[in-house]
Amino acid sequence: MSHYADSSFLASCYLTDANTPRAKAYLFGASVSLDLTALQSLEVQNAFRLGVFRGLFSASDAKLARANFELDLQRGRLVRKTVRWPLVFRIALHLSQGHSASVGTRSLDVLHVAAARSLRAKAFVSFDDRQWNLAAAIGLRVVP
Fold first, then answer.
1. pLDDT number for residue 2
2. In 113-122, which positions are buried (b, 16+ CB within 10 angstroms) versus exposed (e)?
3. Which of the two residues, 78 and 31, has the higher pLDDT score?
4. Cross-strand bridge partners of residue 80
5. Which of 31, 117, 130, 133 is most buried, by the most CB atoms less than 10 A from its CB?
6. Percent of the chain predicted with pLDDT > 70
7. pLDDT in tens, 90-112
8. DSSP H helical segments within 19-138, as ranges?
9. Residues whose CB is less than 8 angstroms from the CB of residue 116 and which lie 6 or more positions away in sequence, other chains included
10. In which domain, by residue range, is 89 found?
11. What CATH number corresponds to the domain at position 14?
12. How many Å is the Cα radius of gyration of the chain?
Protein backbone atom coordinates (compact mmCIF):
# COMPACT_ATOMS: atom_id res chain seq x y z
CA MET A 1 0.00 0.00 0.00
CA SER A 2 1.36 3.39 -1.01
CA HIS A 3 1.51 6.25 1.49
CA TYR A 4 2.37 9.87 0.67
CA ALA A 5 3.70 12.22 3.36
CA ASP A 6 3.76 15.97 2.94
CA SER A 7 7.10 17.75 3.27
CA SER A 8 6.49 19.22 6.71
CA PHE A 9 5.76 15.74 8.05
CA LEU A 10 8.96 14.46 6.49
CA ALA A 11 11.00 17.37 7.86
CA SER A 12 9.65 16.55 11.33
CA CYS A 13 11.10 13.05 10.93
CA TYR A 14 14.61 14.43 10.61
CA LEU A 15 14.60 17.72 12.52
CA THR A 16 13.39 18.37 16.05
CA ASP A 17 10.08 20.20 16.33
CA ALA A 18 6.76 19.77 18.15
CA ASN A 19 5.68 17.01 15.73
CA THR A 20 8.92 15.00 15.76
CA PRO A 21 7.87 12.31 18.29
CA ARG A 22 4.67 11.51 16.35
CA ALA A 23 6.45 11.69 12.97
CA LYS A 24 9.23 9.33 14.02
CA ALA A 25 6.77 6.94 15.64
CA TYR A 26 4.86 6.73 12.37
CA LEU A 27 7.96 6.51 10.17
CA PHE A 28 9.53 3.72 12.21
CA GLY A 29 6.28 1.96 13.08
CA ALA A 30 4.63 1.91 9.67
CA SER A 31 4.83 -1.33 7.78
CA VAL A 32 4.83 0.57 4.48
CA SER A 33 7.30 2.85 2.78
CA LEU A 34 6.57 6.47 1.97
CA ASP A 35 6.55 7.74 -1.60
CA LEU A 36 9.06 10.52 -2.28
CA THR A 37 8.70 12.85 -5.25
CA ALA A 38 11.11 15.52 -6.44
CA LEU A 39 8.85 18.14 -4.83
CA GLN A 40 9.08 16.56 -1.39
CA SER A 41 12.82 16.00 -1.73
CA LEU A 42 13.39 19.64 -2.66
CA GLU A 43 11.21 20.96 0.14
CA VAL A 44 12.71 18.72 2.83
CA GLN A 45 16.30 19.42 1.86
CA ASN A 46 15.54 23.13 1.60
CA ALA A 47 14.00 22.99 5.10
CA PHE A 48 17.32 21.66 6.39
CA ARG A 49 19.16 24.64 4.88
CA LEU A 50 16.52 27.21 5.77
CA GLY A 51 16.60 26.11 9.40
CA VAL A 52 20.33 26.82 9.51
CA PHE A 53 19.76 30.26 7.96
CA ARG A 54 17.03 31.04 10.53
CA GLY A 55 19.22 29.84 13.41
CA LEU A 56 16.79 27.05 14.37
CA PHE A 57 19.57 24.47 14.38
CA SER A 58 23.23 24.15 13.50
CA ALA A 59 24.84 23.22 10.22
CA SER A 60 25.98 19.96 11.82
CA ASP A 61 22.35 19.21 12.79
CA ALA A 62 21.32 19.80 9.17
CA LYS A 63 24.12 17.56 7.94
CA LEU A 64 22.96 14.78 10.27
CA ALA A 65 19.36 15.27 9.11
CA ARG A 66 20.44 14.94 5.46
CA ALA A 67 22.44 11.80 6.28
CA ASN A 68 19.43 10.22 8.03
CA PHE A 69 17.20 11.19 5.12
CA GLU A 70 19.59 9.46 2.70
CA LEU A 71 19.81 6.44 5.00
CA ASP A 72 16.02 6.07 4.95
CA LEU A 73 16.15 6.18 1.15
CA GLN A 74 18.73 3.40 1.16
CA ARG A 75 16.73 1.35 3.67
CA GLY A 76 13.54 1.71 1.67
CA ARG A 77 11.54 3.71 4.23
CA LEU A 78 11.38 6.37 1.53
CA VAL A 79 10.98 5.33 -2.09
CA ARG A 80 11.65 7.75 -4.94
CA LYS A 81 8.68 8.03 -7.27
CA THR A 82 8.48 9.81 -10.58
CA VAL A 83 5.27 11.67 -11.24
CA ARG A 84 3.98 13.12 -14.46
CA TRP A 85 3.97 16.78 -13.51
CA PRO A 86 1.53 17.91 -16.23
CA LEU A 87 -0.97 15.40 -14.80
CA VAL A 88 -0.27 16.55 -11.23
CA PHE A 89 -0.95 20.16 -12.23
CA ARG A 90 -4.20 19.20 -13.98
CA ILE A 91 -5.34 17.32 -10.87
CA ALA A 92 -4.24 20.25 -8.68
CA LEU A 93 -6.25 22.73 -10.74
CA HIS A 94 -9.31 20.50 -10.45
CA LEU A 95 -8.81 20.15 -6.67
CA SER A 96 -8.30 23.87 -6.28
CA GLN A 97 -11.47 24.66 -8.21
CA GLY A 98 -13.50 22.23 -6.17
CA HIS A 99 -12.10 22.66 -2.69
CA SER A 100 -9.74 25.58 -2.00
CA ALA A 101 -12.49 28.12 -1.34
CA SER A 102 -13.97 25.89 1.37
CA VAL A 103 -10.86 24.15 2.74
CA GLY A 104 -8.37 27.03 2.54
CA THR A 105 -5.55 25.13 0.89
CA ARG A 106 -2.52 26.89 -0.52
CA SER A 107 -0.97 25.97 -3.88
CA LEU A 108 1.69 23.69 -2.38
CA ASP A 109 -0.94 21.98 -0.22
CA VAL A 110 -2.96 21.24 -3.35
CA LEU A 111 0.13 20.07 -5.25
CA HIS A 112 1.01 17.55 -2.52
CA VAL A 113 -2.49 16.09 -2.48
CA ALA A 114 -2.55 16.04 -6.30
CA ALA A 115 0.81 14.24 -6.36
CA ALA A 116 -0.54 11.68 -3.90
CA ARG A 117 -3.59 11.18 -6.10
CA SER A 118 -1.45 10.79 -9.23
CA LEU A 119 0.58 8.09 -7.47
CA ARG A 120 -2.63 6.36 -6.41
CA ALA A 121 -1.61 6.62 -2.77
CA LYS A 122 -3.97 4.96 -0.34
CA ALA A 123 -3.05 7.21 2.57
CA PHE A 124 -1.92 10.80 3.03
CA VAL A 125 0.34 11.53 6.00
CA SER A 126 0.38 15.08 7.34
CA PHE A 127 -0.04 17.24 10.42
CA ASP A 128 -1.69 20.00 8.34
CA ASP A 129 -5.48 20.18 8.79
CA ARG A 130 -6.05 21.83 5.41
CA GLN A 131 -4.19 19.06 3.59
CA TRP A 132 -6.00 16.45 5.69
CA ASN A 133 -9.37 17.92 4.75
CA LEU A 134 -8.52 18.06 1.06
CA ALA A 135 -7.07 14.55 1.02
CA ALA A 136 -10.10 13.19 2.86
CA ALA A 137 -12.43 14.99 0.44
CA ILE A 138 -10.98 12.99 -2.46
CA GLY A 139 -11.08 9.68 -0.64
CA LEU A 140 -7.56 9.32 0.70
CA ARG A 141 -7.17 7.89 4.18
CA VAL A 142 -5.46 10.53 6.33
CA VAL A 143 -2.96 9.71 9.07
CA PRO A 144 -1.55 10.00 11.75
1. 84
2. bbbbbbbebe
3. 78
4. 36
5. 117
6. 99
7. 999 999 999 999 999 999 999 99
8. 20-29, 38-53, 59-75, 85-95, 101-103, 107-118, 129-137
9. 4, 35, 124, 135, 140
10. 1-144
11. 3.40.50.1010
12. 15
